[in-house]
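Case study 2.
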Amino acid sequence: MTIGFAGMSHLGIVTSAAAAAKGFDVMSYGEPIAISEPGLPELLTSNRIRSVNDPSALQECDLVVVSQDVPTNATNRSDLTGLRQLIAQLPPVKTLVILSQVTPGFTRSLNLPNVYYQVETLIFGRAVERALYPERFIVGCADPSAPLPDSYAKWLQAFACPVLRMRYESAELAKISINMFLISSVATTNTLAELCETIGADWSEIAPALRLDKRIGPHAYLSPGLGIAGGNLERDLITVRTLSEQHGTDAGIVGAWLTNSRYRRDWVLRTLHAAVLAKTARPVIAVWGLAYKQDTASTKNSPALAVLESLQEFPTQTYDPQVKGTVPSALEACAGAAALVVMTPWKEFSSYTAAQIRERMPGRVVIDPFGVLDGRALTADGFSYHRLGGK
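Prediction:
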């Protein structure tokens, strides 16, 4: 059985490689982009993957999956132009699956036969794991009561997880719903973690109690962060707010989440101003991490870039293991700096000791929102140490 993939962006590369790993022959169409994901190089060595330059070749496939990433503009609204153009290039095929994230109503608007919408599970930095071991598949159908085509069912069954069939619009909104519930955890965690910082409590002590509550569960998102980053979460908030405005429903909580996210993102600037900027003329600031999270090179809505934009009048020295244009190493970024700000919790950063940082950095302020470094060791070594959710 051959599965065609149209759109070799992040989503398409990882998903097609996972299909090949499950024993399917894969035909890929589209110019691949350069991405980095743990475990991906091993999957891409498969001899089951064949790229084609002519979309008409996809007509040979038993199933064709549209797997093009959907970009967002400066206001975090989806730009579906490229996706529509890609779909228009495709020849008539036996079964078409739209895997790209779209706004509710998109799939039905295509008015195509044998078309399905499937909720993608891509998470940057964990894309291979998610592609090989999904929790479930959510499939939007013209008729949810009808069985899926044999080729499509065979592909889904290879992953041995539940398959939820529903109407197109429900599946399209399901993806947004999942992200909205995630956002509620993010916003609640950040709100309470900030309270911890002011009353002497410690969020790292509270989170384990929440994980033992069955109503919340062991997998709840309970790590304090710098608001909503990345490309999809804020896009989904904007989508819900837009739909609510169009249909006259209330989405006031969405505005509150956006406000909370931007307020929490500025925690670093508030802390840096109080500890350094208000006390030192033109201090050099070392910044570790530019990606919006670890294990990805993506900087979409990255809190680090927002911080750097606000620090334009100050000299900064940045390092990130994957984002280009930085100094060669983390310790080199510390040379001559008054403060170190850790903006991305890369595992590499946890290996550096207080002594190594002290040797390179004359300043004694470390702002480590995610607690990547050994805060007790830094404090004992004379550093002023700051992290989210505690002291």
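The chain has 15 helices and 13 strands.
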